[in-house]
Amino acid sequence: MSEAASERDGLGDEVAPGLRTAIGDDGVHTWWLCNEARRNAISPGALRWIAATGPTLAGEIVVLRGVGGRAFCAGFDLTALAEATAPRQPGGPSLLPDEALIAATSAMRRANATFVAALDGYAIGAGVELACACDLRLARRGVFLAVPAAELGVVYHAAGLQSIAAALGPAGVRRLLLLGDRLDAEEAWSLGALIRLCDPDDFEAALSDVLDRLRRGAPLSIQGNRELLRALERGAPSTEQLEDHEARRHAAYASEDHREARQARIEGRPPRFRGR
What we know:
Mean pLDDT: 91
Shape: globular
Number of helices: 12
CATH architecture of the largest domain: Alpha-Beta Complex
Largest sheet: 7 strands, mixed
Structural class: alpha/beta
Low-confidence stretches: 1-8
Number of domains: 2
Distance between the termini: 39 Å
CATH class of the largest domain: Alpha Beta
CATH superfamily of the largest domain: 2-enoyl-CoA Hydratase, Chain A, domain 1
């Protein structure tokens, strides 16, 4: 795809099959799932790109969304199963299809970035896990979440179950994985999985508001709180994680941004944060 065409459609550059990225004037990164013919099913190549890119992030806001307004992500691209299950070596064990997904979502949860899942279409299987690996999720009315593990005869991996359970709670994850229920956006909202539930006409404005609020926040505060929230989702934080959090607290109180916030309050103006 030419650079001019990328600029016209606003979806940026293709970085992997079915995945394109764009950086807005506000600095927000958008990762577009763009396999519309297959309802934005995600390919192993796209998952490998996410896994490789996660460690390179340095405080960005990243929006994950699907093109077309119908599907956020219909799960793993089943046409790519042959690639995903190729033997590691002749006669050796096969790679499981979800190993690329495990690496990608693990990289997202470790990355120094705030991920926002913009669910303006339904999410199935791997799409649900990608959304649950994000720090924030918003959805429009009319979308649904589904994980057809029992229908496909698969046992879901532990980190994925933990991530989905953290977002949807014990009842929600059991309904998805054991009963094969579809949870609509209203149910996901009632379970606490979403920060916004929007009418379709209000979705883009709601997304813009969320991103503006993130951009206005003090970077050290957002990063420090985000990291411990992620640790809490994975269970009881370790001693090392708690010590790191306490160090971040001391650094934040001693930062230029904290002094700027106090001065801005006194002067009655918005603070100008610089991340230090």
